[in-house]
Amino acid sequence: MSLKNVNNALAIACTLFVLYLGLSFILAPGASAPGVGLPSWPEGDGGGFLVMKGIREFSMGLVIGVLLVTGHRRALGWVLLMEAVAPFGDMINVLAHHGSTAAAFGIHGLTSALVALTGLLFLRETGSARKVPAPAPA
After folding, report:
1. Burial class (CB in 10 A: 0-12, 13-18, 19+), 105
2. Where are the domains of the chain?
3. What DSSP character marks residue 44?
4. At 32, phi and psi to the nearest 5?
5. What is the distance between the alpha carbons of residues 133 and 136, in angstroms, rounded to a whole number?
6. Among 4, 106, 132, 138, which is 20 to 30 Å from 49 by CA?
7. Model confidence over 83-103: pLDDT tens digits?
């Protein structure tokens, strides 16, 4: 299987997962919240922050999907590297708030690593394609 096919499969999986995650936090924040590893439900009207997380996730999924569909593969590689910061930040947040270490590393840390790896694979794929020798002078 070619690197391009592997990258396509990984990007499609990232897109679908992030869109699903975003929609689940938008439509059912109470059911989705325990899965992030934080120790308690937000007090007061803190549930709005979970919807905000859902909107963030959903928009990130749209960006990945649009770049993949439009064929902007190098930009997609860079965007995936940048989007790996979000689950890394979620991991730090869970750890800082004495949440589940297993969820912090197993969910957020692993997600961050996989998204970053996918971004690096896209950059590797497109980097070799960009190294075209200059035409000989006439």
Report:
1. middle
2. 3-35+47-128
3. T
4. -85, -30
5. 9
6. 106
7. 999 999 999 999 999 999 999
